[in-house]
Amino acid sequence: MSHHADYARQLADRARHAARHLALATGAQKQQWLHTAADRLRSRSDEVLVRNEQDIASAPHHGLSSAAIDRLRLTPARLESVANALREVATLPDPVGEVIEGYVRPNGLRVERVRVPLGVVFFIYESRPNVTADAAALCVKSGNAVILRGGKEALHTNLVLYRVLKDALVECGLPEHAIQLVATPDREVVGELLKLRGLIDVTIPRGGKSLIERVSAEATMPVIKHYDGVCHVYVDRDANPDMALSILRNAKCQRPGVCNAAECVLIHSDIAKTFLPRLAALFAAEKVEIRGCPQTCAAIPSARPATEDDYRTEYLDLIISSRVVSSLEDAVAHIETFGSHHTDAIVTGNVAAADRFVAAVDSAAVMVNASTRFNDGGELGLGAEIGISTDKFHARGPCGLRELTSYKWVVRGEGQIRE
Residue of 71, 97, 242, 266 with fewest CB within 10 Å of its CB? Predict the structure, then answer.
């Protein structure tokens, strides 16, 4: 075995051992850990910020843009919000041990379906260092051991955050290997970990499409993921145009670089003549480039003609594609052809049309008269999320504490035997 394979196996063995102990931990112990970790982040903030400075100093060497460097940077205020996020996870109900359903069989057997942790989570991410603390908090709270693999550009920051979280585990009498960080930037270790089905129960990649495609291709265990967020807003013939414009401004412009931002607007042909000029004015004011169908381009001189590729693109930028459709069914067909089953919205005053859209659109989240930006664990009341899934097995949509659990059947009898 290579040293990479050895290292991966050691991480996974330790995680599996920790998971068995963590499954027996009380909710009170996990709460205590979250509060202790938040306190330690505060008292050791100088140490964390010094390590973060090391990453900031080498960021240009990694070819990071100024926006990426800003996302990487921790300030005292940002560190405070990382600590507060841990305290917020502490306020969420503990999913472990929740009885999902329970009943008594005619023979007197008492049957329950009870929530249990998944076991060992391998979490690979390219995002800001706050995700290190968020993911650890969600996994441990839901009784799972987690192996964290952050981006190489945040390695020093992630290492110090991991040490603070691990020290707090020891302090609270929880297994220290409930959280582990892959301490090398070598990509080979990721490949070795992805082979360890039987030790690792689920892998969750969070980052760019190429990362997620690589993980999905190599993983031998289930993966919770989404590739793209090609999200649509369909403006129906019975839409309130003011509402539609307000929703489109929020869905496209509030944070264009996120997976639940709108990438395409579909407009019913009955209202296109009056709606398109207003759409043009909104997007001109917000500096959004429009790539449209012939009807869009005829009504909006500044729009560029859209190609089929444009309709498939997740821009993550101030660019939107536009298409005039002749019916709700055409809108649904467009979403089925070009969408990514992430988040799609209809704006309409017609309840029957809304119901047809909701039934026909096969996406993780379907919005009626609301922004696509609401497909988010916090916004939907999950408290926090580890990611968004467009898969259909196990979990779909935002994945919070409950989605980090499975269930077991618990059957209590008084000596019954099967006839």
Answer: 242
Burial (CB count <10 Å: 0-12, 13-18, 19+), residue 360:
middle
Give CA–CA dist 40/34, Å, rounded: 10
Q: Each residue of 252-277: pLDDT tens digit?
A: 999 999 999 999 999 999 999 999 99
Q: Measuring CA to CA, which residue among 346, 324, 322 is closest to residue 239?
A: 346
Are 3-224+399-412 and 231-379 the same fold in CATH?
no
Answer yes or no: are the C-beta atoms of 99 and 112 closer than 8 Å: yes
Q: Which residue from 76, 54, 56 is spatially nearest to 66, judged by alpha carbons?
A: 56
Residue ranges covered by each domain of the chain: 3-224+399-412, 231-379
Q: What letter represents residue 304's amino acid?
A: R
Q: How many residues does the chain have?
A: 419
All residues at 6 or more sequence positions from 303 whose CB lies less than 8 Å from its CB, including other chains: 280, 290, 291, 292, 296, 297, 322
Q: What angle in degrees, to the nearest 10, is found between the helix axes of 27-43 and 76-91?
A: 170
Question: What global pTM score does this model have?
Answer: 0.94
Cβ proximity of 129 and 150 under 8 Å: yes
pLDDT of residue 127: 75
Class assignment of domain 3-224+399-412?
alpha beta
Q: Is the Cβ–Cβ distance between 140 and 146 less than 8 Å? A: yes
DSSP state of 307: P
- CATH of 231-379, picked from 3.40.309.10, 3.40.50.300, 3.10.310.40, 1.10.1790.10, is 3.40.309.10
The rounded distance, in Å, linking the Cα atoms of 24 and 26 is 6
H or E element, residue 174: none
Residue 275 burial class via C-beta count within 10 angstroms: exposed 0-12, middle 13-18, buried 19 and up: buried
CA–CA gap between residue 362 and residue 281 (Å, rounded): 32
Q: Which residue has the tokens 């793209």?
A: 228
Instruction: Tell me the two tokens of residue 297.
Output: 């381009």
Q: Over 80: is that where the pLDDT of 6 sits?
A: yes
